[in-house]
Every structure is written in structure tokens, then in C-alpha cells.
Amino acid sequence: MENVLVAGATGTTGKKIVHLLNASQYFKPFALVRKKEQLEQFKKDGIEAILGDLENDVSQATKGMDKVIFAAGSGGKKVVEVDQEGAKKVVDASKKHQIKKVVMLSSMGADKPEKAEDLQEYLKAKHNADEYLRKSNLTYTIVRPGSLTNNKGTGSIALSESLNRQGSISRDDVAQTLVRALHDDAAINKTIEILEGNTLIGKALDKVSK
Predict the structure, then answer these.
(1) Are 178 and 143 in contact (CB under 8 A)?
(2) Residue 189 to residues 35, 78, 83, 90, 174: CA-CA distances in angstroms?
(3) Which end of the chain is more exposed for a tag (fewer CB within 10 A), N or C?
(4) Which SUPFAM superfamilies does its entry note (predicted)?
(5) Is this prediction's pTM over 0.85?
(6) Greatest CA separation found in the chain?
(7) Which residues pair with 158 in a beta bridge?
(8) What distance in Å separates the CA atoms of residue 139 and residue 188, rounded to the nearest whole number?
(9) What is the pLDDT of residues 102-120, one digit of tens each?
């Protein structure tokens, strides 16, 4: 069983990721949290948590980990400090501790932030974080979903390196995709876009993994 650090574990999507990992036979989640009281929330559910603030030093957070999911977001409040620089800190820590794979939650539009009508600052931060990971020599998968909804997941998605269209996807299905992308053979060093669709998540990932 592999140890997986989840940055952004207290967020809406992050919580879903942690619980999926906790139910997995392959992975053991470690939730990265900012506050001491959040440690207790996870421990009540039998999930281990690590104290660390993405705006400060997180260089030891990846110690003892095998893989990392970065799903943190500032909700538009501190996009440079958290979405960009926080991501870079986690990448640096992952290099330091020789993490086997980093799965990054990005966003559709992060490839060309300058073309976005809104959220330009957010998409630029995501773009910079993605590029930093790409150049890190770590094994990675970058996942760029469309607009996130709280609809119930279907377990099926549309996935491509470039979908060439806008759309939405449930947080459930995003979380499932991120967890599936942790596997060693899934979408190695690929950047993928995902939306609602009709292909089972595992099959969709298999297609870009070959």
C-alpha cells in the first residue's frame, strides 16, 4: 500500500479524494491540513493528517510519502500564494523526498490563461504551477477539468489531451480521476482535460496511457 499526501484535503474535492483513497486497497491517505482542529476531524475518521501551511514551509510534508495529489485552491483569494507558490513548494518537497508520482489538479484554460475572459489571474497561477511540475523531472499527471459541479458522479467522463470545448464535470468524477491517475501506468507525464462524458474513467485513462 502506498502513502499518498493530499494537499487541499479540507476542500470540497479534497475531502472526496481522501475518502476514496481511504477506501482503496492500494493507497493510504495523509491529509495536509493548516489547523490543529482539522487534524482531529480526520483522525475521527481513522485518517492520518499532517500539519502544514502552503503559505509557509511544507518541505517535510512529503517525508515518508510515495505519491502526492495536489488539489489545493484558495477559492480565488490567494491565487499566487496558494495555487501557484503553494504548488511549487509541494513540487520541491516531492523532489526532495523522491516522490514516485505527483497528480496535479489544474483547470481547463490553464494552457492559455491570456485568452480567458475571466479568472485570468487564477488560470495564470495554475499555468505557472503546471509548468513548474512539468519541468521538475518528477513523474506527473496534470488533470484539467471544466467547471466543477456538486452533482452526483457518474463514473464516466470525456477525456483527451485537448477536448476543444467547454463544459462541466462533477467533483465526484474529478476526485475519481485524480485517484485513478495515481497508478504507475496511468497518463504518465500527460496533461489531460476532462468533462462529463460516456467513457468509464479507467477506460478513458487507459486510452491516453498507451
Answers:
(1) yes
(2) 33, 27, 20, 17, 18
(3) C
(4) NAD(P)-binding Rossmann-fold domains
(5) yes
(6) 45
(7) 195
(8) 7
(9) 999 999 988 888 877 778 8
